[in-house]
């Protein structure tokens, strides 16, 4: 997969042969290297660079993203911020810290108890500057040079050679700035970027910095406009697909451009590309300063359809020639598929019902913070895929573009989300402050960037926005209609939706302006919604919000989802019976969902644990909005207020099916049992090392894709149980603990199907290390995730071990992070040693750019036999 990915990346980003022996007509170069960083602000700033002053300049730099009824976007006269030291070309930045992007300064810590737990107890807010000195060849004179920033957190302002260029407030939007007027080919250039991340602007860890990739794109003055190739597939059958390619071409030259545009389609597969259709050239003449739109429809016979099991892709290669010279050549990957939501059958991909087995994920990558890393994202998807997950909701913001590339290639469906709030905020300084000015630009930027991805099946204009609670007459839906309208102007091929935790959103007008309704946690609403709105597609935009800490079990167990005894030590018991007050354990959700005809599937909150929002140890009163029953709201308020008095150390979530380090919790196997019914599997909980519980009731629960199972304790049967209707787990709640072995044998339709065993561990004796990948690319980005287990002498996991493990690496690599999945740990993620959490530790090793060779990672811990893994950088 890795090779395939690399090959595919090269296809997109590298220039291919050109007619003339000169620079390729379009180059897209990584601009991540060689930055300088400082947390000091320019002197005498005194608020002068604040958003209020920058606003007209920023709107001007985003002018292409506003329609005719939008704010004034003329660029003011002068040079915004031009007097400040940090923007000057000759400013002495030699003392600044050199680094390579992507970079998230917040993840560097330190954690502090007094920092808000909801945003991870990490210092992500404040001002920072990035500067980059670079040379541009003199031969670039006359070319159009564009800076592409996939995401900068937040309120970025960009100067080139002391001249203000532009910027973008929303930290999750990708944007592009035309550097051409300010750039000096053949001379040194200096880019300066100021970021300002406001406090109280997020409900989770937002990260900080230039945390996504940055690119420099060079084109001719005549070129395809940014995000200006739009591929749709208006008609798809087994015999043939119609593929329509609309190309927006800009003529930034001073003369008329008489052009010939042609597009060829290629099928992409592991071995390369095969021509699938060739269009007739279209000729067009564009006046200086104007844009032309041309559309061509090609026929692909016997198309290879994109699906979650066979994610076939195509690429449209558009060539523009002027006087026989190739002036631009753009590659646009796409897929051919039909994706339809309907109220009766749910979601259909290429005509077949595909239940959405999705998860919501935040954008942080655990110990790596929000700094985007392709391999870290790919690993997340691999772990999710093995569970049977087929969909991702990018909660609650535009994702890194790489996530969508991976979803296209690996076959994941995506609900692509824009906002967590609209004009009414959830935090003092969150997006609601920018919403009036920026919602249009942010929405258009999202849809234009992402509309060619076959993985994207749904646009979401918001999550649990406060406006959802407006009664019909209050016209909250009018705002939804406006936002949906903006999306539809940019893409008519996908439904527009949103995530609602207000039951009334199914009845107060929203249901008529959106194409599909996604409920968050409103299981009691499903049946009523279906009855009142028989023609409107319905799915679970957020489900479960179950809580657990990996490997933690408290006794006695209780079926009360907010049983205080299930919570102690700032951990939550992993019996998968516990949930946030507004939420449900997985089985309760499934019972409701399975009773609703046409329910399209769910996005579980969440796939992976994330930094921040450590419910139930966060006392987050904002979530009280989830309660419409006043008595229940009062009860919750009291619970939360009491919690709020405890100084909780928790800094990351308990919602994940998989912990922050990427280790599956028990719940992983619960979802696997449901989502991969054909995979013979069984899983038992809890672990079976309870020396202090001899003779005590220690319930055993089993998850299996079978329909029946028999449990054995030290060879003695404790009974065979069948899953009845509406039952998803098998329970033996009166087992008395005795050390030894528990085994479950699962059956399907009477035949043995799968087995699972838990054995009592002896004293911790040794470390065992396993790398997820041993052959790495020597590019300074590739990662190996190495799991270290603490085992007894026989190789049984010591399930409660907390031994400290130290790591060292030799060869061309470095240790970039360690983690153990404990949501309460304040240890630095960059630490080279870490205590195990319930027997497991993770260490992340990164290659160095350009240096190949063997790498050895060693793990040591006093009193335990050490472990070693060998890796290679190629
Ligand atoms: C939802 C919200 C999510 C997250 C979740 C926790 O209401 O949309 O962002 O806060 O609750 O259960």
TrEMBL record:
Annotated signal peptide: 1-20
InterPro entries attached to this UniProt entry: Beta-gal/glucu_dom_sf, BetaGal_jelly_roll_dom, DUF4982, Galactose-bd-like_sf, GalB-like, GH, GH2_Domain-Containing, Glyco_hydro2_dom5
Residue span(s) of domain Glycoside hydrolase family 2 immunoglobulin-like beta-sandwich: 230-337
Domain DUF4982: 695-754
Gene Ontology BP term (one): carbohydrate metabolic process
Occurrences of domain Glycoside hydrolase family (ranges): 767-869
UniProtKB keywords: Glycosidase, Hydrolase, Signal
Stretches assigned to the Beta-galactosidase jelly roll domain: 92-200
EC number: 3.2.1.23
Domain Glycoside hydrolase family 2 catalytic positions: 345-524
Annotated GO MF terms: beta-galactosidase activity
SUPFAM superfamilies on file: (Trans)glycosidases (SSF51445), beta-Galactosidase/glucuronidase domain (SSF49303), Galactose-binding domain-like (SSF49785)
Signal among keywords: yes
PANTHER family named in the record: BETA-GALACTOSIDASE (PTHR42732), BETA-MANNOSIDASE (PTHR42732:SF1)
Family the UniProt entry places it in: Belongs to the glycosyl hydrolase 2 family.
NCBIfam families named among the record's database cross-references: GalB
Protein name as annotated: Beta-galactosidase
